[in-house]
Amino acid sequence: VSTQSTWGPFLIGLLRLLFHLFHLFVFCLSLNMATRYFLLQYQYVENMAEKRTDHRAGHLAVLDEYSGKGSLMLAGAYIPDLSGATFIWQCADKSPIEEFLKKDPYAVNGLVTKWDIHEYATVVNKLQKSQ
Questions:
Q1: Which residue among 6, 42, 73, 120 has the highest number of C-beta atoms inside a 10 angstrom radius?
Q2: Which of 129, 120, 107, 125 is nearest to 52 (CA)?
Q3: How confident is the prediction for the chain on average, in pLDDT?
Q4: Are 8 and 16 in contact (CB under 8 A)?
Q5: Residue 91: CB partners within 8 Å, gap ≥ 6?
Q6: Measured distance CA(112)–CA(35) in Å, rounded
Q7: For the whole model, what pTM was predicted?
Q8: CB distance 40 to 102 below 8 Å
Q9: pLDDT tens digits, 82-117
């Protein structure tokens, strides 16, 4: 009995198993990285409803850009006074949020007096993106 015929199929099977385990590991890592959540909070200038007029279309376009990329999950201003806004992000790190802040006409043109980014752990999540 040849040892090559005994070990050959075993080694091929083992390599296939390792190949699939590696891809499963990479897939699991990507899911874990995609489930980090960040909260961006804006504080607006007084009389924001009047002051935002010239920049609103650009602001909405940037929101649309980032929601289209899949990282911006929710965004909205506080009502009724428009004193600020909250944005919920799902991304691997803060870099898309920092990029957004450099593009958002509200932030760039001084309509945002203060902003904060916080990472947080979710306990209940009905907004989970389908993978």
A1: 42
A2: 107
A3: 87
A4: no
A5: 34, 36, 38, 71, 97
A6: 27
A7: 0.70
A8: no
A9: 999 999 999 989 999 999 999 999 999 999 999 999
Task: State the DSSP string of the chain.
Answer: --HHHHHHHHHHHHHHHHHHHHHHHHHHHHHHHHT-EEEEEEEEPTTHHHHTGGGHHHHHHHHHHHHHHT-EEEEEE-TTT--EEEEEEE-SSSHHHHHHHHH-HHHHTT-EEEEEEEEE--SS-S-PPP-
CA dihedral 15, 21, 26, 32 (to 10 degrees): -170
In which order are the strands placed within the sheet that holds 84-90?
A: 72-77, 84-90, 37-44, 112-120
Please list the ranges in the chain whose pLDDT falls under 70: 1-5, 27-34, 127-131
